[in-house]
Design a protein that fits this description.
Distance between the termini: 39 Å
CATH superfamily: Hotdog Thioesterase
CATH topology: Thiol Ester Dehydrase, Chain A
Number of strands: 8
Order of helices and strands: HHEEEEHEEEE
Structural class: alpha+beta
Length: 182
C-alpha cells in the first residue's frame, strides 16, 4: 500500500453524502496548509533519519515500542512496530497502549514532515477506535495530516495487522503548533 499522491485537494460542489463517500473511499486528503510555503510541498521537511533521531532524543519512551519508520512524505508517515511478547495483554491481543503510542509517534512525524523539526509541537487530543482484535504480530501504522493550520494540525492514523492486512484501529489526533518565534 502506497501513499496517495500529494497535491491540491480539488474543491467543487459536493453533496454531503458524496463528501462522506469520498472520505471513506480515499485513504486521506493532502494537507491543507495555512501558509503558501507548505502548499504544494514536494519533499518532506524532515528525513526518516532526522525524525528517528528526534524521537530518540526528545521522546525516549517511544523506543520501548521499537517502531521502525519506513517512509516520510509531506503530511504522511508510515511505520511498523515489530511484534514483541511484552506487547500481548491477557486475552492474547496487542495492548491498547502500544497501539496508542505507535499512533501518536506516527502523527508527530507526519506533522513534522510539513512544519520541520519544531520543538513543542504537542498532542492536544488523541482518540482511538479499536475496530478488530489485533492478534499477536507486527502492527503497521499510516499517519496522514488532514488539515494543517497556523496553530493546529488535525490528522488520522490507521493501524493494520501486517499478517492479515485488517484495519485494527482508527485514530484521530490534533497537534498544537507553537506560534512563529520570528
Amino acid at each position: 500500500m502506497g501513499f496517495p499522491p500529494v497535491g491540491r485537494w480539488h474543491s467543487g460542489t459536493f453533496s454531503k453524502s458524496k463528501a462522506i463517500l469520498l472520505l471513506f473511499k480515499a485513504p486521506c486528503r493532502p494537507a491543507r496548509a495555512g501558509s503558501k510555503e507548505v502548499r504544494g510541498l514536494s519533499e518532506a521537511r524532515i528525513s526518516v533519519a532526522e525524525f528517528e533521531r528526534i524521537a530518540r532524543e526528545r521522546v525516549p519512551f517511544t523506543q520501548s515500542i521499537g517502531a521502525v519508520v519506513e517512509d516520510i512524505q509531506p503530511g504522511h508517515l508510515r511505520a511498523r512496530a515489530p511484534f514483541r511478547e511484552d506487547f500481548v495483554r491477557p486475552g492474547g491481543t496487542i495492548a491498547g497502549p502500544v497501539l496508542m503510542a505507535l499512533a501518536d509517534l506516527c502523527m508527530y512525524g507526519a506533522v513534522l514532515s510539513l512544519i520541520g523539526p519544531v520543538e513543542l509541537a504537542v498532542t492536544t487530543n488523541l482518540n482511538i477506535n479499536f475496530l478488530r482484535r489485533p492478534r499477536p504480530g507486527t502492527i503497521v501504522a499510516e499517519a496522514t495530516v488532514l488539515k494543517l493550520g497556523k496553530r493546529l494540525a488535525v490528522g488520522e492514523v490507521r493501524l493494520y495487522s501486517e499478517e492479515s492486512g485488517d484495519l485494527v484501529a482508527h485514530v484521530t489526533s490534533t497537534y498544537s503548533i507553537p506560534p512563529d518565534r520570528a
